[in-house]
Amino acid sequence: MFIFFGIVFTVYGLINYYIIRRGLSVVPAEYKTIFLVVTIFIAASYIAGRVLENIWISPISIVLVWIGSFWLAIMTYTFLFLLVIDLFRLANHFLPFFPSFITGNVEQTKKTVAIIVGVLVLSSVAGGFINTKMIAIKKYSIDIKKSAGGLKSLNLAIASDLHLGTINSYEFMYKVGDKLNSMNPDLILLAGDIIDEDLGPVIKYDVGEHLKRLKAKYGVYAVTGNHEYIGGADPAVEYLHKHDINVIRDSVVKIDNAFYIVGREDRSSRQFGGKQRKELSDIMKEVDKSLPVIMMDHQPFNLEQAAQNGVDLQLSGHTHNGQLWPFNYIVEKVYELAWGYKVIGNTHYYVSCGVGGWGPPIRTGSRPEIINIKLNFVGDAN
Known about the structure:
This protein is α/β, with parallel strands linked by helices. It has two domains: 2-131, no CATH class; 135-377, 4-Layer Sandwich (Purple Acid Phosphatase, chain A, domain 2). The protein has 14 helices and twelve strands. The strands form two sheets. Strands 1-12-2-3-4-5 form a six-stranded mixed β-sheet, with helices on one face. The longest helix is centred in the N-terminal third of the chain and has 36 residues, at 59-94. The two termini are 47 Å apart.
């Protein structure tokens, strides 16, 4: 954990140092000190707010977290735009190609570029903030080649990566809950990262009231994600259980003698919790694979394991599809399935980009989503 956060804070510090250095080259001399102080304050506000809310949840901690959250997105896009500009400058140093109207008045060019970058960054952040409010509902109909007793179909409402906390709080959960309930689901499944690390804001603002409003014929089931472990998995799970969310941890639930739900502990349990999760093959020993098997595994690694162990549908999240463009291209290289639907053998997979988000309340790579899957049980695969 110390290594992980050490790397994160080092990278964060270096990026902010780069932005400040580039900003100081444009800001007039009489405003440099103000610019430096304000930028350092804003850059430190997210970390300060998250630390403070563990001690004292107050208007101060809320304001700091909100300022810092938006800065994360502003910082990201400022860094990317400046990096592109500096790469062009480097190329021009070795092979001059800039026209004279750029090189003729360097100071004016700097000011013009600064304005353009500022407009592009703020437009991207504003558009991404609006996008987070536009939750999409994705509908799928999937045939499972198994019988489920007398059950012919199953209506699933699925959400992942709610990241409930200071940013995604009471009103957010109210909206998500209404959308999930509107599907009249037989089963609601929450595929990890329900709590955004710190449980304090969730308790203070009674977000759990809206978790208890979730209604489905067979109940609401969930698995842990990496953020539950970063903030402390056991308290988070206890809170969810108290609010009618059944968290499945490396275990199996048989429902109505018709189908199974398998819940895997998040793979970060070893990194942040000091314990190794069970192998899927061990969990599946108690499963009658002639019945349909639905599995939730927050992080979509090693997809072939589900197919090898007779899982019919795997549901994951975690990737956010990068959340901020162009990071979606990076996650596509990391994961076999970074977002969307795929079939391997007889196993169906859906990786959600999430309905909430971590850090900035900004999405520029995809819309937040809730998934509505109708499973049709169409008989024996053999």
